Amino acid sequence: MTTKVVTAEHGVTLQEANRILRESKKGKLPIVDSEGNLVSLVARSDLLKNRDYPWASKHPQTKQLLVGAAIGTRLADRERLAKLVDAGLDLVVIDSSQGNSSFQIDIIKHIKSTYGDRVDVLAGNVVTRDQAANLIAAGADGLRIGMGSGSICITQEVMAVGRPQGTGVFQVSQFARKFGVPTVADGGIGNIGHIAKALSLGASCVMMGGLLAGTTESPGEYFFLDGKRLKKYRGMGSLDAMEKNDSDNSGSQARYFSESDTVKVAQGVTGAVVDKGSIKQFVPYLITGLQHSLQDMGVPHLSQLWEMVDDGRVRFERRSAAAQIEGGVHGLFSFEKRLYK
């Protein structure tokens, strides 16, 4: 049992607390107030996590990991949201294939009037300025951009509704930036180059589905086909997802406003993706690759990227079919394509 307890006074900075931990070689550092009451606890394991996961998203004051959750736009979702906020939710994502609806506008107004700044709202999906304007006016803190551009989505093919992802990201991000609203490029991200393009077009960050679907931590079981290790990946608009839960509270059906439909119309497919290993190796590969992409562009910092695009120092150019062939692997009898180690 420890008899000589090393403590720090309430108000100590995290940097100072970490220094005391290192010098004392203790596993825990109690933070106490002027009367000796325990206020909080700093652990050596936190130092190790900071070292191993330097890019983790944390609350600026508490240093706790940020937590987000997705909800729909129905009345039952408001009850679920109340419990999530009580549990300490930081971000709520309103999940809808078409965000510019009266359902979503009503729930955004409800969240803002009920919880204020306690929780941020990521609304969407949208692809036009008019759609974005309605959600921003309702109180959205961020916007998801994309309709029918995901690898397992067939909305554009079946419904003839949607927009090219690059155009949507550029138009909506340019408009939203005037109001200080960040945007998320949701859909069509298949490699590092797509991430770089989305950020260059104005997106604040990207959302990745298929790109992470084959990782060890993603849902589903692995199976083998023709000697390759695969994992099942389905769209929320696929019949497979809709039939999985045929109740009135089905998340898939609510997302596409089809709970009461007798005939279900698919807006997604079910497929399989190749095993990508653990996310602990794959995400650092994406980060490092994006850093190299910005370096090749001559962009010193991500915050300067949009400015350099606006003034023409970073430009998009049309590539001919010959240029696209030239930009890929060519002229070889055979080759092995290994993306990272």
Question: Describe it for me?
Answer:
- The protein is of the alpha/beta class.
- 38% of the residues lie in helices and 16% in strands.
- It has 14 helices and 12 strands.
- The strands form 3 sheets. The protein has a 6-stranded parallel beta sheet with strand order 4-5-6-7-8-9, covered by helices on one side.
- It is globular and about 70 Å long.
- The chain starts with 7 loop residues before the first strand and ends in a 15-residue tail after the last helix.
- The mean pLDDT is 87.
Topology:
Elements: E1 8-9, H1 14-24, E2 28-32, E3 38-43, H2 44-52, E4 68-71, H3 75-86, E5 91-94, H4 102-115, E6 120-126, H5 129-138, E7 142-145, H6 155-159, H7 165-177, E8 183-186, H8 192-200, E9 205-207, H9 210-213, E10 222-225, E11 228-234, H10 239-244, H11 251-255, E12 270-274, H12 279-297, H13 305-310, H14 321-326
Helix pairs in contact: 5-7, 8-12
Low-confidence stretches: none
- Rg, please? 23 Å
Q: Count of helices?
A: 14
Number of strands: 12
Residue-averaged pLDDT: 87
Distance between the termini: 44 Å
Reading the helices and strands in chain order gives EHEEHEHEHEHEHHEHEHEEHHEHHH
Provide the spatial order of strands within the biggest beta sheet. 4-5-6-7-8-9
Structural class: alpha/beta
Biggest sheet overview = 6 strands, parallel
- CA-based shape: globular
Beta-strand content bin: 15-25%
Helix content: 25-40%
